[in-house]
Amino acid sequence: MAVFQNLQYQKRITFAVMSFLIPLLLWSLVSYVPFLWHPKVEITDPGSVSYLKQGMLLDREIFDRELNSAKEEDKALPRGEPANPIYLPAPHEVATAFYTAFTTEPKRRNEKWLHESLWDSIQVIFWGFFISSLIGVPLGILAGTYSTVSRLTEPFVEFFRYLPAPAFGALAVAILGIHAAPKIAIIFIGTFFQQVLIIANTTRKLDPSLVEAALTLGGKRSRLLFKVVVPGVLPNVYRDLRILLGWAWTYLIVAELIGSSSGITWFITQQARYKNFDNVYAAIMMIGIIGLVTDMLLAWLGKRMFRWQKQSSSA
Amino acid sequence: MTNFNLPSYLEQSDKVRDRFDRLKKRPVILEIQDLGKDFDTPQGKVTALKDINFRVHKREFVCVIGPSGCGKSTLIRTLAGLESASSGQVLLDGKAVSGPGPDRGMVFQGYTLFPWLTVKKNVMFGLEMTGSGKVVAEEEALQWIELIGLSKFVNSYPHQLSGGMKQRVAIARALANQPRILLMDEPFGALDAQTRGKMQAYLMEIWKNIDVTILFITHDLDEAIYLADRILVLKAHPGEVQEVIEVPVPQPRSEDQFLSPEFLATKKRLEELIHPVKEEQTVNSDHLNMVRMVPVDDEVESVF
């Protein structure tokens, strides 16, 4: 457990796998070991109790009371097995849901399949983030490079970033309608202002001696910006974007509730309404998986794009 | 060193004196006139440089040396145009300069190679900035890289090079612009002793063969004597010229001269200027306030 020491490759993989296995193990324990938690009883045989039905979930206390009163009155005993609440499905149920959620036809004809909902979500994220970056990255770099631009933009941006993006929901719907546009706007508002500040700060961290070296080599004005500042900060800006993309996902759920509910959020609320909590968990995990895979993909791409960087093991 | 019977550092052989006479007749490349630099700090105004006057002649090698805090770096940064002078001016070929420019090349202690560019592209950088076409720039860059012996590494990135190699690339990058004067700010300060020795030899070789005037900052006395025609000694608080020493060690230099009487005499003089023996040497500055912390009956009773 040496401080700040890098692990060997094999150990790193092992620990990474374990970081997933440990929570899974806890979840399995709670789900499969009957005497751990299981505050409910699933009725297998209602016996003489009139209001019980097979498959019903009952608080253990109430079940015990019914069992005792049946015993006292010498009637047929109800039978049941310990169970967890419906909102905690077992791992295998969620695993199955990963498949069945995609294959189950929507209940109504105008509703979307899961893959269509997911695709909607991905598009909303993409456009929100893309439009934000299209303006935010250049503006951030300019603000980081020129103090006039910084003074002209950053105080307002600093103020605006404290305005919670969801607060603009109603406004966005009023202006942009109820479909994808207001959702993209929410993601834009949630991302853009942070982005400008973060990228401006990243730009300011560029080693000033590189700019000085360029000056003594005859570098001037815009060439200094495009030949030194931009290439110099690009890998760090790219890393910032990866982090910001993660934040954009957190705005997605709020954004999708605005106007007509859509995308993965619509699926999740819909399934929760039907009490298909296995589907709910599966959908939430899908978001995590999409996020993680995208980030890994981007990290890999970054390594390829910025080969000139000293490869650190944590990248 | 005082035990040796050394000649005065002012004594010059006829050959050396003749060389200095000729050197001083060469055209002046860089002239520093009454240069002063003040910094505004929260503690008030600090004078880093005061009334510096100096002339550097064509193809001369000048070293600047001084105690820490004497404004060596401020001086060279002002000459490069990275800092503006508070008073006085700097003339390059008789014309006052303002701001940085490719006519004054600079080599920094921290290499400052562009990490995203290959060795070749780094050397091409200045050429492209000053308006050379890509083809011409590439051709010239390759020649400079060959000159510093790094042809095998043209397509390597800086992080793949050793410190010495990086600094060679930085020198090539500065020279590619064919500056009137090459300013070097403790360029070998971060290198180990062995690499530093090699780099000094490389630099001498380059200086001999290329039309370049060098102003070199160092805090290493041996380095200054070994490299310089003249040494500009600064003193601290405020940074003023203390003495300009004409190094009496004959040119061309070699490592054998490190123990020659002229070399040692110069070194002695520099030692006196930079680390003057104070009258009242008290305990506080150079010695730690220590008591014996080894048990009396320790196996090693004393290190002496």
In words, what does this structure look like?
The complex is a heterodimer of chains A (315) and B (304). Chain A has 315 residues and is mainly alpha-helical. In chain A, 68% of the residues lie in helices and 4% in strands. The longest helix of chain A is centred in the last third of the chain and has 37 residues, at 221-257. Chain A is elongated. The mean pLDDT of chain A is 90. Chain B is α/β, with parallel strands linked by helices and 304 residues long. Helices cover 34% and strands 22% of the residues of chain B. Chain B contains nine helices and ten strands. Chain B has helices spanning 14-25, 72-80, 119-129, 134-147, 163-176, 193-209, 221-227, 261-274, 283-286, and strands spanning 28-41, 44-57, 61-65, 87-92, 95-96, 104-107, 181-185, 213-217, 230-235, 240-246. A six-stranded mixed sheet of chain B has the order 6-7-8-3-9-10, with helices on both faces.
Q: How much is the average pLDDT of chain B? A: 86
Q: How many helical elements of chain B?
A: 9
What's the count of strands of chain B? 10
Task: Count the beta strands of chain A.
Answer: 3
What is the averaged pLDDT score of chain A? 90
Radius of gyration of chain B: 22 Å
What is the beta-strand fraction of chain A? under 5%
What tags apply to this protein structure?
heterodimer, A: mainly alpha, three-stranded antiparallel beta sheet, 11 helices, 3 strands, B: 304 residues, 9 helices, 10 strands, globular
Q: What's this model, at a glance?
A:
Chain A has about 325 residues and is mainly alpha-helical. Chain A contains eleven helices and three strands.
List the helices and strands and how they pair.
The complex is a heterodimer of chains A (315) and B (304).
Chain A: H1 9-32, E1 40-45, E2 57-59, H2 60-72, E3 79-83, H3 91-103, H4 114-145, H5 147-160, H6 169-176, H7 180-204, H8 208-216, H9 221-257, H10 263-273, H11 277-305
Antiparallel strand pairs in A: 1-2, 1-3
Chain B: H1 14-25, E1 28-41, E2 44-57, E3 61-65, H2 72-80, E4 87-92, E5 95-96, E6 104-107, H3 119-129, H4 134-147, H5 163-176, E7 181-185, H6 193-209, E8 213-217, H7 221-227, E9 230-235, E10 240-246, H8 261-274, H9 283-286
Parallel strand pairs in B: 3-8, 3-9, 6-7, 7-8
Antiparallel strand pairs in B: 1-2, 1-4, 4-5, 9-10
Helix pairs in contact in B: 3-4, 3-5, 4-5, 7-8
